């Protein structure tokens, strides 16, 4: 996978990052959450069949979309902005930039626009012609324990430092009540809330997510700086103010190596940013399609038709 290169579009689409950034910047004016939503799409793409744009495919006669798998359904968002980016790129450099690369660039630009680090994105991914609903059902879930989360990361070549650093993406964005309300009233059948949840924060969350209330209501993943990419996510964990069970476990699993990593990232935002960049590049390298494999989709939601070659160029004519 050393085949991805930061210079991949230097001659064929030199403005690609600028174009992506411009569209995200515009979208952020109306939706402060959109950057968070976009980086999550890259994560959910890369963990299923690699970073190949598989997540973006809609249902069709031949495609069982990943969008409808439980972790994505009524949860993954930002597809309209991905389409807007694709449209702009098809005008600037037709049939050149893959949808998988759009997600990788959008992730980086979103982090950077929110005050986080910026980095040179490795590029040259091509788009799949298939999706994998079954694998998408197995994406990491918020109530999974730490060994299980570690296993899912190691399955794609990511280690425990990567798990902690990448979880730091929960420094921005939102989550629905249904993803954490297991902690509020009857945690693991105890009849009590999760003991690793700060009691003041617990009251706040109970107000947002009442028992038998609307479980699709959203709240900030980072209560301190909800739209800023910083290390507050980690300092929250130290005062038991992580939102998801999978977040809080990183600090509250006594004796686990994750605790020291959380402490380090809390003490040193520069160390967090440096690790985050390394881990994002690693994640972006999960089994990409390169060379002549796959295609350059012209519409991110569907596979090219028979009139489109594997180079993404249209071969049909009258
Ligand atoms: C460690 C395993 C992870 C679990 C269990 C997990 C779980 C979740 C859940 C349950 C939500 C809320 C979804 C909803 O309510 O609709 C969420 C949101 C989010 N996740 Fe994760 N996540 C994990 C790792 C990651 C990684 C690796 C990234 C990116 C590098 C990431 C980025 C985000 C972002 C930015 C949001 C907010 C999205 C938005 O506001 O639209 N997560 N995650
Ligand atoms: Ca994929
Ligand atoms: Ca934050």
Features:
binds protoporphyrin IX containing FE, 2 strands, binds calcium ion, single chain, two-stranded antiparallel sheet, 318 residues, mainly alpha
What would you say this structure looks like, in words?
This protein is mainly α and 318 residues long. The protein has twelve helices and two strands; from the N terminus they run αααααααβαβαααα. The protein has a two-stranded antiparallel ribbon with strand order 1-2. Helix 1 packs antiparallel against helix 3. The chain is globular, with a radius of gyration of 20 Å. The mean pLDDT is 96. The structure holds protoporphyrin IX containing FE (HEM) and calcium ion (2 copies). Protoporphyrin IX containing FE binds next to helix 2, helix 7 and strand 1.
Listed once per kind, the bound small molecules are: protoporphyrin IX containing FE, calcium ion
User: What is the chain-wise order of helices and strands?
Assistant: HHHHHHHEHEHHHH
Strands of the biggest beta sheet: in what spatial order? 1-2
**Cα-to-Cα separation, first versus last residue:** 39 Å
Largest sheet descriptor: 2 strands, antiparallel
Rg is 20 Å
Shape: globular
User: How many helices does DSSP assign?
Assistant: 12
The low-pLDDT segments are none
Mean pLDDT: 96
Q: How many β-strand stretches?
A: 2
Strand content bin:
under 5%
Secondary-structure-derived class: mainly alpha
> How much helix, percentage-wise, in residues?
40-55%
